[in-house]
Amino acid sequence: MNLNALQQPMEVGLVQWGRDLDEALQASDESGKPVFALFQEVPGCIGCKQFGADVLSDPTIVASIERDFVPLLIHNNKPGKDAEVLAAYGEPAWNFQVVRFLNADGEDIIERRDRV
Fold first, then answer.
1. SS3 breakdown of the chain: % helix, strand, coil, rounded to 5?
2. How confident is the model at residue 34, as a pLDDT?
3. Dist. CA 72–CA 88, nearest whole Å
4. Residues of the chain with pLDDT under 50
5. Strands (E), the chain
6. Tens of pLDDT, residues 18-43
């Protein structure tokens, strides 16, 4: 198990998340894997914490995200680069978790999902 993951906020679970959109898109281009972009409130409400503790800490889900995707975490309640990505994708701040699956060009592969 990744020791850094154990020090992450509860809201993001145990997935080894990347935090830079451009790096994630480049990794997607190089690997052929889509980006699994999680827009999450950190620190977050009890529902966000539960999602991180239950869903994003389940060993099968963690393994699948890390094996089959380029994991990307965007805080939906922070200024700077996170806020820029929110604006670029039209995502609301302080929202429930949203998952988007992106190709290497940053385009949605499937329809955006919120309240996952």
1. 40, 20, 40
2. 98
3. 15
4. 1-3
5. 35-40, 70-75, 98-102, 113-114
6. 999 999 999 999 999 999 999 999 99
10 Å CB burial of residue 43 (0-12, 13-18, 19+) is: exposed
User: Cα 29 from chain centroid?
Assistant: 18
Chain center to CA of 30: 19
Which percentage of the chain shows pLDDT scores above 90?
A: 82
Do residues 70 and 33 make contact, with C-beta atoms less than 8 angstroms apart? yes
Cβ contact 105:25 at 8 Å: yes
β-strand pairing of 98-102 with 70-75: unpaired
CA distance linking residue 36 with residue 6, whole number of Å: 20
Please state, in angstroms and rounded to a whole number, the distance separating the CA atoms of residues 17 and 24. 10
Q: Provide the greatest CA pair distance for the chain.
A: 37
